[in-house]
Design goal:
The protein is of the alpha/beta class and 478 residues long. It folds into two domains: 21-72 and 334-477, Aspartate Aminotransferase, domain 1 (Alpha-Beta Complex), CATH 3.90.1150.10; 81-331, Aspartate Aminotransferase, domain 2 (3-Layer(aba) Sandwich). The chain has helices at 43-52, 80-86, 97-109, 121-132, 146-154, 182-192, 216-229, 240-250, 259-268, 294-307, 318-331, 334-353, 371-374, 384-396, 405-408, 436-451; strands at residues 67-68, 114-118, 138-141, 158-161, 199-203, 232-236, 272-276, 287-291, 366-370, 398-399, 401-403, 424-428, 459-463, 474-477. The strands form five sheets. A five-stranded mixed sheet has the order 2-8-7-6-5, sandwiched between helices. Strands 9-12-11 form a three-stranded antiparallel sheet. It is globular and about 60 Å long. The chain binds pyridoxal-5'-phosphate. Residues 73, 120-122, 145, 147-148, 203, 207, 236, 238, 276, 278-279, 287 line the site of pyridoxal-5'-phosphate. Pyridoxal-5'-phosphate binds next to helix 4 and helix 5.
Length: 478
């Protein structure tokens, strides 16, 4: 008989049980050494806090939040090994030994030759866009990401979504909804000409589609096509480790390979990457730009000095670079990544059991509630996802994030709202921070809101900032 040492507890069905086929329980592969108390405000206080925050969860005070699922960005718990590394920070202005350790980790696990450190992901996006994108260029990608697209646009480019249609359908159970639609990509390149396409921007996993992965097969096809056309492929590697795990469990032929091996293969199909270390790499701050091309490296390394800091720190302290180098090592460990995605799956399965409409398949870093189906009575112009995020906080002190019409912003040419097909609320799980009990409190609250969904009305926007409006916009109840 198999023991839990020799099988993957998440994949092994429970033998002979009378209940529906269930999966074996697993436990977090860590124990807790330091705790940070959290506190649930009373219902009336939560309602007041939400109103004061203009019904925007970004404007809540962290202290007023009980379970914070706003984002997995910079919110992960560091290990004792990472904290120990913090004491080894070499804070020399130039040539810090922690930079060389980080460079080594990126070469070992991601495989790129050159590293340009940045303070976080958008710092890397800024430099890459300024170096590669010229006015009038076109940048295709597998669905937009907020900061990535904005930097492409600020550099004079136009973003084009070339993701497969399934990505826009929250009910499609396609296992790789992050895939690039090669016909869409070819059509765009034929139309504008390869010389106007500085690179294809490929994200893995695709945040805005629900943390959905791209397959190795698709990545290889994109890579072959782009190489034949002389177009670069730039990876948004922010959650590429999570993508590698999905390749391992969902794509035929990869189950015997380690997540680390898969990650390396995957990156080898691209020419460079931007990275927010605040996600996969288990740190609170940090990022990088990496590439193989010597000339591109030269330019990027020069520009980082202008915007971020010297090319051996890029806006990070030496200790931050050390923590990230160690975080990269830990991020590809099998038990870590299995439990990380296992926790997301645990939350998602409970919501599915309660018939709550969520994006399927369950993604890597978050559960996405489908606000269009949750609140069909609220028109998209009255912000159903923004409303649901506010209601969830008021019900249980759980903070989530809108990923719908507010996040999609306005069309820079017409000034109208972009009306995205997906109108979602994201419950994003920080890595190694919450336990399954926190997940239980969360799904119970969502299930209760769903039972009471008919009573809820939408919101009206009362303040709208010009850039990335979802961060600072304010609303009132209709
Ligand atoms: C968070 C994120 C970024 C931007 O990174 P920051 O570190 O927040 O600047 C870019 N792409 C994706 C997919 C992200 O999730």
């Amino acid at each position: 008989m198999a023991t839990t040492d020799s099988v993957d507890p998440m994949l092994e069905p429970r033998p002979g049980g009378r209940r529906m086929p269930r999966h074996r329980s697993w436990a977090e592969p860590f124990r807790i050494k330091v705790v940070e108390p959290i506190h649930l405000l009373g219902r009336a206080e939560r309602a007041r806090a939400m109103e004061e925050a203009g019904y925007n969860t970004f404007l809540l005070r962290s202290e007023d939040v009980f379970i914070d699922l706003l984002t997995d960005s910079g919110t992960s718990a560091m290990s004792d090994y990472q904290w120990a590394g913090m004491m080894l920070g070499d804070e020399a202005y130039a040539g810090s030994r922690n930079f060389y350790h980080l460079e080594d980790a990126v070469r070992t696990y991601y495989g790129y030759r050159h590293l340009v450190p940045t303070h976080q992901g958008r710092g890397a996006e800024h430099i890459l866009s300024q170096v590669l994108v010229k006015a009038g260029d076109h940048v295709p990608g597998n669905m937009y990401f907020t900061t990535t697209r904005l930097h492409q646009e600020l550099a004079g480019g136009t973003f084009h979504d070339v993701i497969v249609d399934e990505a826009h359908d929250p009910t499609s159970t396609h296992p790789f909804k992050g895939n690039v639609d090669l016909d869409k990509l070819r059509r765009l390149v034929d139309q504008v000409g390869a010389e106007r396409v500085p690179y294809v921007s490929v994200a893995a996993t695709v945040n805005m589609a629900g943390g959905q992965p791209i397959s190795m097969e698709n990545m290889r096809a994109v890579s072959e096509y782009c190489r034949s056309m002389g177009i670069r492929v730039i990876l948004d590697a922010t959650r590429a480790v999570e993508n590698a795990y999905f390749i391992k469990v969902r794509e035929p032929g990869w189950s015997e390979k380690s997540v680390a091996e898969i990650l390396l293969q995957f990156c080898s199909l691209t020419d460079g990457c931007t990275m927010s270390g605040k996600k996969d790499a288990l740190v609170n701050i940090g990022g990088w730009l990496a590439m193989n091309d010597d000339d591109l490296f030269d330019e990027a390394r020069n520009m980082v000095v202008v915007y971020e800091g010297l090319h051996t720190y890029g806006g990070m302290a030496g200790r931050d670079m050390e923590a990230m180098a160690r975080g990269i090592e830990e991020s590809v460990q099998e038990d870590h990544i299995r439990a990380r995605i296992g926790q997301v799956e645990y939350l998602g399965r409970h919501l599915v059991d309660e018939d709550v409409p969520i994006v399927l398949p369950i993604g890597g870093h978050a559960i996405f509630l489908d606000a269009k189906r949750f609140y069909p009575q609220i028109p998209q112009g009255e912000f159903p996802a923004q409303t649901l995020a506010a209601e969830l906080y008021m019900d249980s002190g759980v903070r989530s994030m809108e990923r719908g019409i507010v996040s999609a912003g306005r069309n820079p040419k017409t000034g109208d709202h972009n009306y995205p097909k997906l109108e979602l609320v994201r419950l994003t799980l920080p890595r190694r921070v919450y336990t399954q009990a926190h997940m239980d409190v969360t799904w119970e609250s969502v299930a209760e809101l769903y039972a009471k969904r008919d009573e809820v009305r939408g919101l009206r926007m009362t303040y709208e900032p010009k850039y990335l409006r979802f961060f600072q916009a304010r609303f009132e109840r209709i």
